[in-house]
Amino acid sequence: MYLAITIFLLVLITESILFVGYSYLTSVAYDLYVKVTKDARVVKQKKMRRNLLQLKTELGQTSSQDEFAKWAKLRRKLDKSVADLEKLNSDISYSKTAFELKVKSVLWFVVHGSQMIMVFWFRKSAVFYLPPGWFGPAQRFLSWPFAPKGAVSVVIWFAACRRMIKALALTLNDFILTPAVEKKVAA
């Protein structure tokens, strides 16, 4: 019976990952990674943004006609800061994309690879046995492809669990989450 519960929990986890979405999970993982590692580039980016806003404020308060030399100096400094910030943003964006690609690969393996490994590893095992004669000729299809006759195979149990969890998720989405959103919109 442990195999049936293990498969059910694995399908529950993988369907939850698919329901939430790879993009959201990778974004959360990257934000967590940045907070934990305290990436120096992100700290520098925040500092540069603050300085850029200060320069813009100071430039807006300076008259271009009355104090042209000061205004021109601030303008050059602002242009240089914007160029530096754009370069840093592209570097951070590149590293974020690389990180997200790695996390998405791990998630893909968790979702699909773990199920394939379970199917290959337990392909000849019975998840559980059915009482004889209950399902008639359909009993052979429930043991498809390699499980003993009269048993439910891993492949069929994966499909049944996946189908049940998706149906439950759609029901919850339709009757619990959607009305809550509609109430917020109506208010």
Task: Report on the architecture of this protein.
The protein is mainly α. It has six helices and two strands. It has helices at 2-20, 22-37, 40-61, 68-121, 138-142, 154-186; strands at 128-129, 151-152. A two-stranded antiparallel sheet has the order 1-2. It is elongated. The two termini are 49 Å apart.
Radius of gyration: 28 Å
Span from first to last CA? 49 Å
What strand order characterises the main sheet? 1-2
How many extended strands?
A: 2
Mean pLDDT metric? 90
How much strand?
A: under 5%
Range of helix content = over 70%
Please outline the helices and strands.
Layout: H1 2-20, H2 22-37, H3 40-61, H4 68-121, E1 128-129, H5 138-142, E2 151-152, H6 154-186
Antiparallel strand pairs: 1-2
Helix pairs in contact: 1-4, 1-6, 2-4, 3-4
Which features does this protein show?
2 strands; 6 helices; 187 residues; 2% strand; mainly alpha; two-stranded antiparallel ribbon
Quick description:
This protein has 187 residues and is mostly helical.
